[in-house]
């Protein structure tokens, strides 16, 4: 004897989310370091300024720069003018400028901004529709 099975076909609609709001709070932390180019910093193709040549915002000597993370960015200013990011490299021990066209005594500022304290929260819950399922027999 053959087995008879019922066959059903169904369709459904996709749930839709509407409304809702996300609040984001960004609390950047910025640290600045100051130095002047010294004769010993100028090499054949680059200028390398040791971290220990810098002072911070409180005029305290710098031992090392922080290791940069994905949530941090930096800006370099030479004689008060912001430089392209591709022209410098920062490590924990130094700032390297890809030029030798800077005179001794010119001020250099390194600014590091951290965005690690960024928090996003749902301030208003969204309304999500219920899918409509239609069974076709």
Which labels suit this protein?
137 residues, mainly beta, three-stranded antiparallel sheet, 0% helix
Contiguous low-pLDDT stretches (5 residues minimum) are: none
Q: What would you call the structural class?
A: mainly beta
Straight-line N-to-C gap: 24 Å
What profile does the largest beta sheet have? 5 strands, antiparallel
Helix content: under 10%
Shape: elongated
Total strands: 14
The radius of gyration computed from the alpha-carbon positions, rounded to a whole number of angstroms, is 29 Å
Q: Would you list the SSEs in sequence order as H and E?
A: EEEEEEEEEEEEEE
Assess the beta-strand content as a share of residues.
over 45%
- Helices, by number, come to 0
> Which strand order do you get reading across the main beta sheet?
6-4-11-7-8
Mean residue pLDDT: 92
Task: Walk me through the structure.
The chain is mainly beta and 137 residues long. The protein has a domain at 25-116. The chain is 0% helix and 46% strand. It contains no helices and 14 strands. The strands form five sheets. Strands 6-4-11-7-8 form a five-stranded antiparallel sheet, with no helix packed on it. A hairpin with a 2-residue loop joins strand 7 and strand 8. It is elongated and about 100 Å long. It starts with 8 loop residues before the first strand and ends with a strand. The mean pLDDT is 92.
List the helices and strands and how they pair.
Elements: E1 9-12, E2 17-18, E3 21-26, E4 29-36, E5 47-50, E6 55-56, E7 72-78, E8 81-82, E9 88-90, E10 94-97, E11 107-114, E12 118-124, E13 127-128, E14 133-136
Antiparallel strand pairs: 1-14, 2-13, 3-12, 4-6, 4-11, 5-10, 7-8, 7-11, 9-10
